[in-house]
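Ticket reopened. Same input as before:
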Amino acid sequence: MRSIQVTMTDEPLSADALSRELCRDDAGAQIVFSGVVRNRNDGRPVLAVTYDAHRPLAEQTFRDIAEEVCARWGDLSVVIAHRAGRLSVGEVSVVIGVASPHREEAYQASRYVIEQLKLRSPVWKQEHYADGESDWLKGHSLRDDPSAS
Amino acid sequence: MNDDRTTTPAQPARTRVRLRLFGAFRDAANGGELRLEVPSDSTVAHLRSRVKEALARARPTRSHDHLVDLSAFASDSAILPESHRLGEADVCLSILPPVCGG
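Engineering reply: fixed in the latest deploy. New output:
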């Protein structure tokens, strides 16, 4: 049975809680992916990351991606939760859960969700470095044709 | 009979745009938004040029033109194409720089 839950939240994310949301009798496979703030990027020590988001559009994009997953791999259970605000190293920034009858579609769907989420979701990352500087990271343009201007 | 009423040319309709800023644009204007007024028949492409001008006034020491060129404009429910016309009703839109979630 198809089941989709998405959220953009200021609250800490729990992979365990999300995993419980995925339980269903016909699912023989369950994959929970967690993205975590790491302590280094491009050789620079990182202390924290601030996530900014256009919340309604971000949640709409998560929903669109989950619908694409179900259209491609069948009626799976998909949960996408993304954190907003300032996160320290080691905190979970995103959790993606997929439950399906068999492992093959769960692996593929989970990978599809995280890759599409990074390309399409209106979410931005500002890294805070040990030397006191902060930078917004470069990303993927959402314009159809950014070379048109 | 003389009609001495003076006729003034009709003023083109104007639309007020409240533009919410995200990511790297947040530092470019106080309060995380820009307020602009544009002709009501303006397209997103026209709004894009007006945003460049407004940001140049707000932060003259730093050009945001390239970032504006790479950015999309959106309502709360969809990304808008360049040809989208704003219309006469005041609107709240967002400018979305390149994204990097996850």
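Chain A touches chain B at residues 35, 51-54, 56-58, 60, 82, 93-94, 114, 117-126, 136-144, 146, 148-149 (CB under 8 Å). The helical segments of chain A are 15-21, 55-73, 103-120. Please confirm and we'll close it.
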